[in-house]
Amino acid sequence: MSIEVEAFPRDGMTVVVVRGEIDGSSAPSLQEKILPLLQDGSALVLDLGTVSYMSSAGLRMLLLLYRQAAAHNGRVALAGLAESIRDTMEVTGFLKFFTVANSVEEALTTLRQG
Amino acid sequence: MDTRIDFYPTHQHGAYKLRPGRAFPFGTTLVPGGVNFSISSGHATACTLVLFEKGAPEPLVEIPFPDAFRIGNVWCMVIFDLDFERIEYGYRMDGPWDPAAGHRFDKTKILLDPYAKAIGGRTLWGKPPDWNDIYPQRARLVFEDFDWEDDRPLETPLADLVIYEMHTRSFTAHPSAGVKHPGTYAGIMAKIPYLKELGVNCVELMPIFEFDEFENSRPNPLSGEMMYNYWGYSTVGFFAPKAGFAATGPFGMEVDEFKNLVKELHRNGIEVMLDVVFNHTAEGNERGPTLSFRGIDNQTFYMLTPEGYYYNFSGCGNTLNCNSPVVRNMVLDCLRYWAAEYHIDGFRFDLASILGRAPNGAPLPNPPLLESLAFDPVLANCKLIAEAWDAGGLYQVGSFPAYGRWAEWNGKYRDDIRRFLKGDDGMVPVMAERIQGSPDLYGWNERGPTASINFITCHDGFTLYDLFAYNDKHNEANGEQNRDGGNDDHSWNCGVEGETDDAQINALRRRMIKNALAILLMSHGIPMILMGDELGRTQRGNNNTYCHDNELNWLDWTLRERNNELFNFTRQMIALRKAHPLLRAGEFFGRNGSPADIIWHGTQAWKADWSEDSRALAFMLRERDAGQGGNTTPVLYMAINSFWDALPFELPHLPIGYHWHLFANTSLPAPDDIQEPGQEVLLDENVRSFLVGGRALAILVGRPQSQT
Asked: Which of A66, A85, A92 should one mutate to test binding to chain B, selecting the residue with the greatest count of B CBs within 10 A?
């Protein structure tokens, strides 16, 4: 499963646009691409607006990223989750571990305040 | 960095890299770089691991276990680099086909791992299966990394429990539930505020181990509607939560969803008890399918007759051989797994008497399985509750081997309360036993009232509403000409069979329901309420709704508006129980360390009428020192009139400075039928006698008058 990642700076933070499906086969390469962006104290918005599917392994990779960022005093926010993914995260308890925003703009605002 | 040499393979099968596995734990375990597979069979001669891509009709690969990978009767192997999210696995076992000797090996079958932690194939409830699938319910691999934060089992004292028996799907499947994910674990989560408002602090979930709702499914001969194995008392896999009960089942996340439900219930002070079915499996008798146990080690897993047929102490075709050392260990592993990995607070064992039978079926005086469970360190604080009978005629209510741990579903409580309520002769003396926690059953062998799970209704039999709306069962919808289901309901229809517009009859039915709930919640022992009884749920007289995925089982949430007075009555009764430690003591009144007494009265104070035609009973609960030396503990008094006409009950004297307050009177219409605890209505100082209406009861609280 191919996964595309595009990162660009925004207001002193980094927005990472992810495209594709996140599952057990694509998660490792996604993690590999995002990890270098996590500098000490950095703020990262993951724009998942075009991610249509996220498996159990995908969710775990996201949580791993989130915790790795926290370990480096960094912050991560998720933006634009599809409703079905958000639902899955909610009923499995994953959602509450994340900062979640409806849009990239909202995520940037949240991180700026946070 | 991988720093250990056992992170690397040593063997190869085609493109697959292998290493000898570890025998323990059985089942599958994710290990660095791979997956450890381990399975045992006492009689197989060879074993092959079969891997599938999820949902694929044919296997991806079959890997016979190399000889070097077998230790004793256990085959174990690590396979590296599996995309474990996309894999399903099973086994082929080779061995003798010799039914008379108990062996039914068939290497053409692909078998489910008895330790499978997740099972695919029925992940969306009710979706018709592919009947030609060569491996219909497939083992899957799971992550075991759930973040419990600070959660652990609540360890609520048994005496404080108010149990709510419920079916996961039935609770929110009805459209009126108004939840986003009807009929699921997530649905229960959405209704936690309701459970909290009601006040129950333990949910007992009817089976949630993976089962096949399509087992013996068939169209209803009357309506054409599909009938299912709906309740789920037929286990396919003992270690896997029912995926079809998870909103996320189709995404393979039922494990996380169920754990999250447990965590959220705990956060709200509600324990989770599982109804577990270890007495039989979904494989049926010799005509049933070979799914797992039969093909792995038939002679070990099942109780067999000397001719090699299946003993049927469960009434379901086969009997799990629970006191064979191998099966005993599996049961223990299973319960430990649910307690440790899912933080489950307790277990209710379906037809538990089977667990006390030897491999030849004879009841054992000191059953090793029951003893092991009672003394297991992981299960040390889990509640263990037995349905203390089986379908083979063993009835052990009061005598189930307890080891100081086991409680029992008190079937005699159910029968006696029903008979008293409907007005049978000679029930007053036995009522006294039931109300004080059944000392006649549990007053020996160092047991106490907490050995008694008190219930008037449960999933088997009538709902509480139907108990007072039907004289006879009406199971025609089950398609067996009304032959199925019990015939000893001790029910009374209050004058008309079924629904009626007669306001008087409907008022009487509501009163009878309240009487039952009040007695249940005033009794010593652990009360259990059946889902929906607090709302007057009906099954239209059906006392065995095991097969219906429809309104016969689903809770209709519009009842909340229509029957709010029943909800409120139940809620206040639970609140009363919580407010008064007298009702939750772990000792029988008047014994050992109990600081309280129960004093029996009748229509005359201090003089209970125990005679054959007596239908009136009253009692007072009080701490021995109440009213003395600064002890201002309230006194509770209950007068029950099961006679058809009103009776005056002479009130006993209270300690000096105490006054009678009325908490509940079921002869009064709502909202005067019950008060908030603490807001009881002060009775006139001169009242010496209290008139209790026909088929009604009253609860009074004696306490010093609050300063106003």
From this structure: A92
Quote ipTM for the complex. Answer: 0.95
Comparing B471 with A72, the larger pLDDT belongs to: B471
How far is residue B112's CA from residue B92's CA, in Å, rounded to a whole number? 9
Neighbour tally for B145: CB within 10 Å: 10
CB B78 within 8 A of CB B20: yes
Contact A24 B181 (CB under 8 A): no
Please give the domain boundaries of chain A with CATH numbers for all domains.
Answer: 4-109 (3.30.750.24)
A60 touches chain B (CB under 8 A): yes
Question: Chain A contacts of B256, Cβ < 8 Å?
Answer: 56, 92-94
Look up the pTM and report it. 0.97
What is the count of residue pairs from A and B with beta carbons less than 8 Å apart? 53
Decide if A97 and B147 are in contact by the 8 Å CB cutoff: yes
d(CA B217, CA B537): 25
Question: Chain A residues with CB inside 8 Å of B185's CB?
Answer: 91
CB distance A56–B252 less than 8 Å?
yes
Out of B113, B387, B460, B673, the active site residue is B387
Which segments within B168-283 are labelled E, that is strand? 202-205, 209-211, 218-219, 226-227, 235-241, 271-276
Tell whether A23 is within 8 A of chain B (Cβ): yes
If pLDDT is split at 50, 70 and 90, which confidence band does B705 have?
confident
Cα–Cα distances in Å, from A39 out to A42, A48, A62, B362? Answer: 5, 21, 17, 69
Helices (H), B302-365: 325-342
The structure tokens 């075991």 sit at B144
Pick B248's closest partner by Cβ from A60, A91, A97. Answer: A91
B17: CB partners within 8 A, 6+ apart: B9, B11, B34, B79, B80, B81
User: Which among B146, B117, B123 is positioned nearest to B245, based on CA atoms?
Assistant: B123
Whether the per-residue pLDDT at B221 is higher than 90: the answer is: no
Write out the H or E segment, with its range, that includes residue A68: helix A56-71
Quote the CA–CA distance of B49 and B64 in Å, as a whole number.
Answer: 6
B430-443 confidence digits (pLDDT tens): 999 999 999 999 99
CA distance B86 to chain A (A): 8
Residue B322: both structure tokens together: 């629970």
Contact residues on chain A for B84, CB-CB shorter than 8 A: 24
Beta strands B218-219 and B118-120, pairing class: unpaired
